[in-house]
Amino acid sequence: MGVPIEGETIQIHSYKHDGHIHRIWDSTKVLKATNSLVIGGNDRTIVTESDGRTWLTREPAICYFHSQYWFNIIGMLREDGIYYYCNISSPFIYDDEALKYIDYDLDIKVFPDMTYILLDEDEYEKHRQQMNYPTVIDRILHNNVEHLKNWIRQRKGPFAPDFIDMWYERYLTYRQP
Questions:
Q1: Which CATH number is 18's domain given?
Q2: Residue 127: inside a domain, yes or no?
Q3: CA spacing 20 to 30 A to 63: which of 46, 78, 139, 159?
Q4: What is the pLDDT of residue 147?
Q5: Which residues are registered as beta bridge partners of 82?
Q6: Residue 100 forms beta bridges with which residues?
């Protein structure tokens, strides 16, 4: 597994458990990159869905990926505060093509007041049966949902005060005037 270079622009590829592409984010600026952590930023980037449809993200976002945790976190900067969208997913890998992970449907949406809701449990259950998720994967994913909830409650990692703002300031230094 490689490591992206700070300052470079990469794609992010999301897959499903069966290996099919789920979604591609066209361009994310790498703000920090180590063997275990990638933090990126993007704004108004093109997203391509598995059926070929495209859309443009609406606001700046800071993306947090870790090689040891089965989730990734996107902090979106909106006028009324920072919203987080957390994907329960495989740990990321990076190759010369893109940063890649498997999306396992379960999501946690976190509001600026740090309240949160678990989303897409029905979609997860449907895909778990269709794609025959192994019991060990099911257990890992549910354990990571709880781990992520603990991070939210403890204001840890990307949920810490000023984390998103600090990385957004770094992202702005890469933008063209």
A1: 2.40.380.10
A2: yes
A3: 139
A4: 98
A5: 77
A6: 13, 93
| Per-residue tokens: 90 | 């495989």
Provide the H-helix boundaries in the chain.
121-130, 135-154, 163-174
Residue range of the domain that includes 58: 9-174
Within a domain: 28 = yes
Of 93, 110, 86, 69, which is closest to residue 12 (Cα–Cα)?
A: 93
DSSP H/E element including 152 = helix 135-154
pLDDT per residue as tens digits for the range 83-110: 999 999 999 999 989 999 999 999 999 9
The span from the CA of 5 to the CA of 72, in Å, is 19
Give the number of other CB atoms < 10 A from CB of residue 130: 11
Specify whether 58 is catalytic: no
The overall average pLDDT reported for the chain is 97
Determine the pLDDT at residue 17. 98
23 domain-assigned: yes
Beta carbons within 8 Å of 144's beta carbon, 6+ residues apart: 69, 70, 71, 88
Binding region: 87, 103, 105, 107, 120, 123
Annotated binding residues for Mg(2+): 87, 103, 105, 107, 120, 123
CB 108, CB 149: distance < 8 Å: yes
pLDDT recorded at residue 176:
62
The pLDDT, as a whole number, for residue 175 is 77
List pLDDT tens digits, range 152-177.
Answer: 999 999 999 999 999 999 999 997 65
